[in-house]
Amino acid sequence: QLGTLSGSRRSMGSSYGSRRSGGTGSISHSFRQPAGADDPFGRAASQQGLDDDEENLRWAALEKLPTYDRMRRAVLLNHAGAGGADGHELQGLVDIEQLASGEAGRALLERVFQDDSERFLRRLRDRVDRVGIDLPAIEVRYQGLSVEVDAFVGTSALPTLWNSATNFLQSLVGRLASSNKKTINILRNVHGILKPSRMTLLLGPPSSGKSTLMRALTGKLDKTLKVSGSITYCSHTFEEFYPERTSAYVSQYDLHNAEMTVRETLDFSRRCLGVGARYDMLAELAAREREAGIKPDPEIDAYMKATAVQGQQSNIVTDLTLKVLGLDICADMPIGDEMIRGISGGQKKRVTTGEMLTGPARALFMDEISTGLDSSSTFEIVKYIRQLVHVMNETVMISLLQPPPETYNLFDDIILLSEGYIVYHGPRDNILDFFEAAGFRCPERKGVADFLQEVTSKKDQQQYWYLEQQQYRHVSVPEFAQRFKSFHVGQQMLKELQIPFDKSKTHPAALTTNKYGQSSWESIKTVLSREQLLMKRNSFIYIFKVTQLIILGLMAMTVFLRTKMPYGHISDGGKFFGALTFSLITVLFNGFAELQLTIKMLPTFYKQRDFLFFPPWTFALVTIILRIPVSLMESAVWVVLTYYVMGFAPAPARFFRQLLAFFGTHQMAMALFRFLGAVLKSMVVANTFGMFVILLIFIFGGFVIPRGDIRPWWIWAYWSSPMMYSQNAISVNEFLSSRWANTNTEASIEASTVGEAILKSKGLFTGDWGFWVSMGAILGFTILFNILYILALTHLSPPSGSNTVSDQENENETNTSTPMGEFFLTYPY
């Protein structure tokens, strides 16, 4: 674990009042005051003669409202120009919920933003500064941080069947057998401080450990990695708060729901991440303004109240994020994928960035956010983030591969990472001096960022040597790292690290101690609305499944169609038993589509789960609930089409009991395939293993091999087959009806009626109790598979990607031009 263990997470106090972990549907629930308490939203009438009379009258009208209504209102002037949903201009006392979203919210945003983000942020900061409130600030320190991984090297790392088998066996026998595993150092004893109000650029060549460093600082490292050293936020270790919510990590991978639009994607992340301490901040701000007799800017007051509204489908925060990222032109377009036409790759990267910007985190770690963006778009995004850092006191680290000079100059500090070493960490103005002291100078024609990434490379370093009087000597990365410790910037950083951060100076709202941004009930509602939307967008799949059932039903009806289906004799039971089994197989296989649907959503789910968007069980529960009406409809379509045409028992009770049996079977099959998809994670593996599971269930289902013919050592598989209980339920329902109650004349079968004789010959239950026992077993299997599905989503890790690098030691020893594919190692991070 990172940092020093210091017990369980503590509950941090707040000067803003009690911290709420769950949001409510409106701002009123968040600011409601107990009876008799001081009202922080009371407004003292301004005594200054220069105030506008009309504005004063509106503030006075706001004063007269009851506390509950006053918290739901804002004063807008005539020139605010906010339009309501009905097209009329909003002015005077306006309902906050009208301003929080929709056209009114966008009109208010246009008024306060005015295409000048810095002026907009200054207006927000000025209101806070006028009453002496300090904004939350986060200082991130890492000391002695090292990350290692054991990986297979050489040809044993090739993804072949033989290597997979041998590597698995070697892992079982452990030290008793030789192993090709090698310890790879990803980060090597690195130190540093990320300060608030300073924006840091993380530079380094590919595979230098940039993503690993960012993941380590945000608490998102893979659990298979070996981590040592300490990471603290304001001297608090990860055990004292939730780094996943205190900081926001923007991944370099764009994982989104392809069917959702850009606005819907950002709205979902905003609702899940919550509003943080905005409630308490606004209450404290209003109380101090009341005490000082200060009347706030009406537009800024309305905007801040609107951002504190939680639980709505859309919010002004989403509109602001769309605007600053340049996504407003494609806000209502789907994200898209290889099957759905959507936005461009650069716009997807901006959506990935926007997901984290909609939340309340005050420490941002952005990994390769410029991928797919042109230099102008990158500059505008980084410029806005720089304004956030300097005006709103945030802490930001951004990793860029090849930033243009104008973007590079926006940063305050630079971290240069190479081969797992930190070569430089300090102010941007001093980095060229550091390399000149080592004998390397950046040419005027060269961009500084490109120079920094090439000067540590063995093949590119010599061209930057400028000491003509001295012969060039290669300076290795470890030597650069050692030189930095003696450089004045490095010495200053080491001195600062020796002085611990004073915990008492930590802002109460800086670190998040609530695991999720919403209550469990609000999370269920948020996920439910998203999943309903996705089902609507994927309606073709469900329409196709029903159409498929109708076609198969028509085929089955014509195969088993009889003007008068013969019954009452043992010889007649074969046709009915075959028709029942065919129906059962059709319903069972119809749930197989759940396997592909589950695997398709896993990448996005894992990202949102690890970022603590919602508890995993809420997503699983919503998925299970939403599939119930789908399952009922598909089962009903099949039974309604085929039951009477095939000539099953005509009693209505028998009809509904078969419908119940098929509905339970379909639910069980969907739960089984959901569970397999969550465990296997890969479409190829899941399809192969899924068919294998179906064959096992079918073999021991009681149709291919009757119970009496199964060997004793395999009888456990018969009783473990869910299909067996479904076969029993539908067979008992049919063959114990009154038309199969004729006296049994078959002497070889000991049974009183023909129906019981047929059931006994197949090894099935022979009493009416068998139907309800089978239904209970089907229900038990359904619950079991759903519980396993929830546990798999909660605890299993996502499939880790593999980074492949050359085995440099082998190459150096042989001193030959070995192909990259001959010697390499693979490790996940």
TrEMBL record:
<dbReference type="Pfam" id="PF01061">
    <property type="entry name" value="ABC2_membrane"/>
</dbReference>
<feature type="transmembrane region" description="Helical">
    <location>
        <begin position="636"/>
        <end position="653"/>
    </location>
</feature>
<dbReference type="InterPro" id="IPR043926">
    <property type="entry name" value="ABCG_dom"/>
</dbReference>
<dbReference type="GO" id="GO:0005886">
    <property type="term" value="C:plasma membrane"/>
</dbReference>
<dbReference type="InterPro" id="IPR027417">
    <property type="entry name" value="P-loop_NTPase"/>
</dbReference>
<dbReference type="InterPro" id="IPR013525">
    <property type="entry name" value="ABC2_TM"/>
</dbReference>
<feature type="transmembrane region" description="Helical">
    <location>
        <begin position="611"/>
        <end position="630"/>
    </location>
</feature>
<feature type="transmembrane region" description="Helical">
    <location>
        <begin position="540"/>
        <end position="561"/>
    </location>
</feature>
<feature type="transmembrane region" description="Helical">
    <location>
        <begin position="576"/>
        <end position="599"/>
    </location>
</feature>
<keyword id="KW-0547">Nucleotide-binding</keyword>
<keyword id="KW-1133">Transmembrane helix</keyword>
<dbReference type="InterPro" id="IPR034001">
    <property type="entry name" value="ABCG_PDR_1"/>
</dbReference>
<dbReference type="Pfam" id="PF14510">
    <property type="entry name" value="ABC_trans_N"/>
</dbReference>
<dbReference type="Pfam" id="PF08370">
    <property type="entry name" value="PDR_assoc"/>
</dbReference>
<keyword id="KW-0813">Transport</keyword>
<keyword id="KW-0812">Transmembrane</keyword>
<dbReference type="InterPro" id="IPR013581">
    <property type="entry name" value="PDR_assoc"/>
</dbReference>
<keyword id="KW-0677">Repeat</keyword>
<dbReference type="Pfam" id="PF19055">
    <property type="entry name" value="ABC2_membrane_7"/>
</dbReference>
<keyword id="KW-0067">ATP-binding</keyword>
<feature type="transmembrane region" description="Helical">
    <location>
        <begin position="686"/>
        <end position="705"/>
    </location>
</feature>
<dbReference type="GO" id="GO:0140359">
    <property type="term" value="F:ABC-type transporter activity"/>
</dbReference>
<feature type="transmembrane region" description="Helical">
    <location>
        <begin position="769"/>
        <end position="792"/>
    </location>
</feature>
<feature type="region of interest" description="Disordered">
    <location>
        <begin position="1"/>
        <end position="52"/>
    </location>
</feature>
<feature type="compositionally biased region" description="Low complexity">
    <location>
        <begin position="1"/>
        <end position="19"/>
    </location>
</feature>
<dbReference type="GO" id="GO:0005524">
    <property type="term" value="F:ATP binding"/>
</dbReference>
<dbReference type="InterPro" id="IPR029481">
    <property type="entry name" value="ABC_trans_N"/>
</dbReference>
<keyword id="KW-0472">Membrane</keyword>
<feature type="domain" description="ABC transporter">
    <location>
        <begin position="167"/>
        <end position="444"/>
    </location>
</feature>
<dbReference type="InterPro" id="IPR003439">
    <property type="entry name" value="ABC_transporter-like_ATP-bd"/>
</dbReference>
<comment type="similarity">
    <text>Belongs to the ABC transporter superfamily. ABCG family. PDR (TC 3.A.1.205) subfamily.</text>
</comment>
<dbReference type="GO" id="GO:0016887">
    <property type="term" value="F:ATP hydrolysis activity"/>
</dbReference>
<protein>
    <recommendedName>
        <fullName>ABC transporter domain-containing protein</fullName>
    </recommendedName>
</protein>
<dbReference type="InterPro" id="IPR003593">
    <property type="entry name" value="AAA+_ATPase"/>
</dbReference>
<dbReference type="Pfam" id="PF00005">
    <property type="entry name" value="ABC_tran"/>
</dbReference>
